Amino acid sequence: MELHIAHLYADLMNIYGDRGNVIALGNRAKWRGIDVEVRSYSVGGWTDSEWPDVWFFGGGQDQGQDIVGADLAGKNGAALRASVDGGAAIFSVCGGYQLLGHEYVPEIGPAIPGVGILDVTTRAGKKRFVGNLLAESPDGQLIGFENHSGRTYLGAAARPLGTVVVGNGNNGEDKTEGAVQGKVIGCYLHGSCLPKQAMAVARARP
After folding, report:
1. Residue range 3-16, pLDDT digits in tens
2. Largest Cα–Cα distance in the chain?
3. Which of 3, 4, 105, 114 could bridge to 29 as Cys pair (CB 3.0-4.6 Å)?
4. 7, 148, 187, 190: which one is catalytic?
5. Per residue in 36-73, pLDDT tens?
6. Paired residues of 41 in beta bridges
7. Cα-based torsion angle of the residue sequence 51, 114, 116, 94 in order, rounded to the nearest 10 degrees
8. Residues forming beta bridges with residue 3, ordered by sequence position
C-alpha cells in the first residue's frame, strides 16, 4: 500500500510551520506500514497522470497568495477540482483555506476568485486576528495559533470544523472555526496543526 501526498505551492504558501502537517501525515502513514511519496506542485503545468491521495495547502504572505490565486484561476484550479471529484482529500490552512472557497474580497480592488471546492467566502477585515485558538470538535479539542485578517463565512454545503472556545476562528462573530465539506478540510490553525491534534486525529473517522 502506498500513500501519495502533494504539497501545494510549498515555495509560496508555507509559513508558521505549516510544512509540519505534511511531515505528520507521512509519519502517521509510515507507522502503519504504508509507503509514502511526497510531491510538490507549484505554479505552472501539472500532470494528471497520477493524482495524489491527499493534498496539503498551507498559508502564505499576501504576495504569494496573489500569485497562487492567479495560477489556480486557470487549468490548475480545474485540475484540483477534478482530483477532488475523483476522491482525493485536501487539508488546508489559512490562505490555502481561503483560496479553496468561492472568492476572497479585499478592502480595495476586485474580488479574487477561489477554486470553489469549499462553500465559503472570505472578506478582508480591518483588524487582524492574532493569538491562540482553541475549538471544540466532535473528535476533541483543536488547538493552534491564528494570524489572519480575512473573515470567512460558511455556506449551506459546508459545516464548521469546530466551535471556538478561545480566539476568533473563521470571523470572530459566529464562533465557527474551519470548514468541512466531503473530504476537504480548511482551518485557521497554524502551529503546525496536525502534530498538535494527535488525539483528535487518532479518533477522527471519515
Report:
1. 999 999 988 887 77
2. 50
3. 3
4. 190
5. 999 988 898 676 666 899 999 998 877 677 888 889 99
6. 8
7. 80
8. 36
pLDDT value of residue 206? 45
**Domain 2-43+50-203 is of which CATH architecture?**
3-Layer(aba) Sandwich (3.40)
Q: In this structure, what is the dihedral angle of CA atoms 54, 59, 20, 39, given to the nearest 10 degrees?
A: 40
Straight-line distance from the first to the last Cα atom of the chain, in angstroms, rounded to the nearest whole number: 19
Active-site residue flag, 190: yes
Spatial separation of the C-alpha atoms in residues 187 and 91, rounded to whole Å: 8
Q: What are the φ/ψ torsions at residue 128 (nearest 5 degrees)? A: -85, 135
C-alpha cell at 169: 476562528
Do 185 and 94 touch, CB atoms closer than 8 A? no
Catalytic, out of 94, 148, 187, 193: 94
Query: 193 an active-site residue?
Result: no
Strand partners, 113: 103
Grid cell locating 99: 483560496
CA-based torsion, 15, 21, 22, 27: positive or negative: positive
